Amino acid sequence: MSAWDAMSYEGKDTILRVVREEANRLFEMAEQPGIWEAPTACESWAVRDVVGHIVDTTEGYFAAFETARSGAEATAHGLAVMHELAGQAATEFRDLSQQELIARARADFDRMMGILEPLTAEEWTGLILPHSYMGPVPAFIYAAGQLMDFTVHSWDIRQGSGRAHGLPADAADLLVPFMFIIWQSTVRADNDPSPFSLGITVSGRNAGSYRIDVADKGMSYGQGDVSDLPTVIDFDPGSLVLTAFGRSNSGTVRGDLDVADRFLNLFFRI
Fold first, then answer.
1. So what's the pLDDT on residue 75?
2. 187 or 133, which is more confident?
3. Are 172 and 241 in contact (CB under 8 A)?
4. Dihedral sign for Cα atoms in the order 123, 124, 127, 131
5. Cα angle at 36 between 32 and 41, to 5 degrees?
């Protein structure tokens, strides 16, 4: 296993290091004078709402660990409603000052690291927790969730500034395998059910070729040779992450453009 594969215990130290770097980057941006009510790439969210979302999400993670370890059951909302529910929750912290909310977010982050860092090899992949939107998931998904939040929402804050920017390589590389889970979990219910296949290639530390099959029961994927497929879309890690999260329309299409169009418009955005 690779130290850059966060789905394995070998990748644990790497992803937690990068999560800490991305969290500090977001907090430092959000602490700047005059930025609190600045717009971001998230529709109707200012910087203060991004921090509110981080607090809401992280404190939900605490509850997930408590539920799993108590043996209680939980119901998942499904990703289709995440945009609405998370959007509402993020704005509920607007009465707090910049200093108060960032202090709470930093304290929550430290507590979350205190939960993730001691996880054993068995717990990293074998401890199953209830995710508010995705249902039962292994513990490493919560480290990935933290990385997604801090990386993508840091991008949102920078995007709102109007300055040119990009994604840090370490974060983007680690997130690559998780983007296929995001795609698999966000297939629109009203899509054309006729089956099709295509390939995805990705560069970087988690470079590889993925065969994608789409049918009436959703999307399946796996690594493999894509040379026999009618369409292949090439991504660098940052472009893959931003495309999967609906932040950009990226990728180099080789082959049938109509197949690529079907795939890229298959998902609802979160």
1. 77
2. 187
3. yes
4. positive
5. 105
